[in-house]
Amino acid sequence: MTDRIKKPSIFQAFIPILFLIFFLVLNVYFFGEDTLSGANQIALLLAATIGAIIAVSLGLKWVEVRNQIVKSISSAMPSMLILLLIGSLAGTWLLSGVVPAMIYYGLKILHPSIFLMASVIICALVSLATGSSWSTVATIGVALLGIGNALGFSNGIIAGAIISGAYFGDKMSPLSDTTNLAPAMAGTDLFTHIRYMIYTSGPAIIITLIIFFILGLTYNHTDAVVSVASTLLALETTFNITPWLFLVPIILIVIIVKKMPPLPALMAGTILGAIFAIIFQPHVVNQISGIDHSYTMSSYVAVMQSMFGSISVTTSDLQVNDLLSTNGMAGMLNTIWLILAAMIFGGVMEAGGFLVRITESIIRFAKTTGSLVATTVGTCLFFNITASDQYIAIVVPGRMFAKTYRDRGLKPEVLSRTLEDSGTVTSVLVPWNTCGATQAAVLGVPVLTFLPYAFFNIISPFMSIFMAAFNINIRRFTDKEMRSEVPVNIDEE
Prior knowledge:
Oligomer: single chain
Strand order of the largest sheet: 1-2
Largest sheet: 2 strands, antiparallel
C-alpha cells in the first residue's frame, strides 16, 4: 500500500465479515431454505458496501475499489459461463434420454447396499479421467442422484457421495487446474505433488468409502424393490432406452481427456444431446414442444426450450416425474447472481487489504509444524468463505506461506498438499462460494443439506493437520539442501 493509504486494523478488517455473518443469520431466520433466491446475494452486497466505506475512509479511492471488484468478477467469469452451459447440457441430456438411460441401467446394475460406495468410486474415476469435478457432477452425478432417489436414499446423502468422489478424482488428476495450480504456487512439480497427496487423500477416501459402505448396509431399503420396478417401467415406456445413448457422455469424456477447454467441450456435449434427442426421442420432443404437425418445428422448439428454460417429462409414475425435470440456463441465473455478489464482496475485501491483514496476524501464532499447517488450512477456508473462490483460496495463501515453509525447512510439497487438502476441497462446502453455489444448483441440493455427508471434503483438511501434528511423513530439507536451495521470493501485489 502507498503512504496515502492507511493499513487497516485487525478490527476494521473483520467488520465486513461480522456484518456478513449477521445478515446471513437473519436471512436463515426469516427466509429459511429460500435464502439463495436473493437474500444472501443482498447480504453479500450490503457487507461489501460496508467494506468499501471502510476502504475509502482509509484513503483508497473508489475507482481502485471498483477496479478490484471488476478484476474479481473477471476471474469468476469462466465459472459463470461454464455454469450456463451446464444448465443447457442438463436440458438436452434429459430430452435425449441420456440421463434417463443412465438411471435405467444404473438401477439394473447397482444394488442399494453398495450404491453409495459405488457412487463415490464412479465419480472419482470419471473426475480422475477428466480432471473436472464440475463436469463429473453435472453429468454422472445428476444420473446417480436420480438412481439414488429411486433406491430410496435422501438427496443429501447421495449428493455427499457424489461430491466426495468427484473432488477426490479432481484433486488427484494431473488434468485438474487446481492440481496444477497448487504446486505452482508452492514451488514444486506436479507429479511430486500428486504422489505426496496420496498420504492424506488415500486415508481420507478409504475412511469415506467405509462410512458410505456402512451407511448403505444400514439404510432402510424396504420399499426400494417396488420403487425400482416402477421407475424402470416408467422410463422404458416413456423413452427409447438404448445403449447408443451412452455415446454422448463417452464422446464428452474423450474430448475432455484430450484437453479440449471446458466451454467448447460442454457446448459439444449440449449439441450432441440435442442431436440424439431429435433422433431417438421423437415422442418426448413432441410432448415438450406441444407441436404435432411438423417434427422440424417441434424439434427446434423442444431443443431450444431444453437449453434455456424449464422442461418436464411426464411419465406414468409421479415419483419419476420429479426426476425428469430441468431448468436449463435460466435455472442457473440465481447461482450466477450469487457468484457475482460474492465476487463483489471478495473484491472489496482484497482492495481494502482486509484479507491480507487478517492472515498476517494469524501467521504469528503458528510456532510448530502442526500449527503452521493448521493455520494454512484455516487461512484457505477463510478465503473460501470471504473471497468465495477456490483459486484465490489457493493462490493467496500459497504466496503468503511459501517463504515461511521454506524458512522452517519444510519442502514445498508440504505446502502444496495443504493447499489442496483445504483450499480445493472445502470450497464446495461454502454456499456462496463459486463451487458450492454451482454444485448445489446443478444437483438441486442445498449445500447445507449435503455438507454433513461430504465426508471426504470434511476429513481431508483434518487429515492434513493430523499428519503434521504427529510429524507423519512430513518432508524436510536437509541442512545441505537448506544451504543450497534458492530462497523463495514472494512478490508483492
